[in-house]
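Page 47, continued from p. 46.
Same chain as before, 185 aa.
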Amino acid sequence: MNKAIISILGQDRPGIIAAVSDLIFRQDGNIENVSQTILQSEFSGIFIVSLPEALDLDRLRSVLQEGLDPLGQHVIVRPVRTDAPVYSPSQNREPFVITTRGPDRKGLVARITGVIARFGVNVTNLQAIFKGGAAPGDNVMIYEVDIPATVDQKILRRALRAEAEALDLEISIQHRHIFEALNRI
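Result:
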């Protein structure tokens, strides 16, 4: 089987995932992973699929685009590379959630993720909700990260707090299990 990554982008509306999954199924494909979200009014979906060897990816893209044109979606298809070096995170790591709140300004994500990257910490999920204005509760960023055991967490926390202070942000750094327990409905 071949593997492909399919990106679907366009204005949100009901039925997009149903259409994509049906079109993949009709090509004898299987969805292995999917991540989908709505950003403001825009749909964004990324699918990793396994496909029959005989299915040409250009043909798949054409089938998907034709089927999704009525929904106003844009399709990108590319093979999943198996020859490229793969990032392999350390098995000895801990999941944390970093949350920032504060006024919106250019460079917030770049500066916070810059600190995270300097320490070799991997961002596994990021949600940023910017509503504009200076009300701290209106602008929130939630970074889910894996911190390797080799990272000195005290130094990382100090660096993140210093960057957050420079950006006039409130910051919280919690182990994911604690974050989930505190935010459970």
